[in-house]
């Protein structure tokens, strides 16, 4: 397999034998180029190996990948024994296959979710370039299915072998009596030589042997470590080559020799594998392409599918001024447990260490302002906003709007089981007045990194329950981090008013404007917030003041 990396500067001579020139862009120096695509490419007329172009998030600040490798080390892993051996030591070869498969499936899924982006290969305006039809299956997908079958059916393979072996040792008394001579002792016949119940051919074992041989070929071709059941022999190199050349014919010969449904499924998988190989051999121009230009559109769809809420009013996401929010969803607000508010996010496919521009920040603040105004418009015409609360009528205080960026990173150990969510950057708040957390114009904006492999693996899952688990967990993580930030920056107090709360607010309005807010369900209580290091007002009459800490 050949591994390339998006936006890395290759020499043109390095890519000419591998990739069609339409997929890389020459640089100003005339001898280097970069690739603006991510995905899968196979062209039998150029090389016998599939090409995978990985996203730029794998490149660190020094242009290295996986810690200390140069991207050019992956131009041909088959020929580059040094890199291959180093990757074995670091146990990354298996990951490369898995990563490539995930990436392929994610682009294919994006294509299915965004049908309008599936444009013919000949169009230069295509975001997604694909000649792989809905029913076509690439080598990566066939491999994935065969490897999964091996993982799920080890007990079946062992059972078949033991059952067949045990039958070989059972005496066939009918054949023994008819064909062998007995001697008699004390009136009873005895046979010195018995015949066993032995099948001439175990076709189920033959199928499994072919399967194990295909898996072993994957191990050799892609440097994987797929476990091969030791009870079965595999074909020699010469025998396997002969099988590949006539695979469909061999499989047709044994198709109806067994009746196990699971083995029938295995037969079908092997047939698709062999049929594809024979097709490539017969058509020198055979080509498979599934590439996406500007992978940020896929990353945005990945995050949106896993984090956002799909069935919201259209104007929330596609705003009246022409701006479009990447991700928005209703979730528990940052102050209490009973109210909800819209959480707004923008995914940035910049890499973990990239800096966000002032333009990005200004646009994100505008997103939040538009969402606030949308909800206030509903309040002003007495429309029901449910449990979404943006403004408190008594205090005229505004709820805190969660607003953040999400960037991708790849951790050093290539773990995909943990979200790796961590704070990246805090931006200067957008405000009209200082020290007024509950003012309409006070907007907070944060940036976070999330593990690219974590979201990618979740995106391709077919299980809705797994996605829902991801959504609940990730939403909670974002809220928790934002709440912790507010607790660190502000001091909160609960003001318990002894008598008339409306009178209390009116008497102290000028002093408390923008600093107080009354959440739903609070009758004679107010929430007070001031920045740490500033004065906390505790000299009010007819009230009791308690410390308050936002709960995660």
Summarize the structure in words.
The chain has 552 residues and is an alpha+beta fold. It folds into three domains: 2-136 and 285-293, no CATH class; 143-282, no CATH class; 296-487, no CATH class. 39% of the residues lie in helices and 18% in strands. The chain contains 17 helices and 20 strands. The strands form five sheets. Strands 1-6-5-11-8-7 form a six-stranded mixed sheet, with helices on one face. A five-stranded mixed sheet has the order 12-13-14-16-15. Mean pLDDT is 84; it is low at 118-126.
Q: What coarse outline follows from CA principal-axis ratios?
A: elongated
Biggest sheet statistics? 6 strands, mixed
Our count of domains comes out at 3
Q: Roughly how much helix do the residues carry, as a percent range?
A: 25-40%
Could you name the ranges where pLDDT drops below 50 across 5 or more consecutive residues?
118-126
Mean pLDDT: 84
Strand content: 15-25%
Q: Give the class from helix and strand content and strand pairing.
A: alpha+beta
Q: How many β-strand stretches? A: 20
Q: Radius of gyration over alpha carbons?
A: 33 Å
Work out the helix count: 17
- Spatial order of the strands forming the largest sheet: 1-6-5-11-8-7
Summarize the entry for a quick read:
This protein is of the alpha+beta class. Helices cover 39% and strands 18% of the residues.
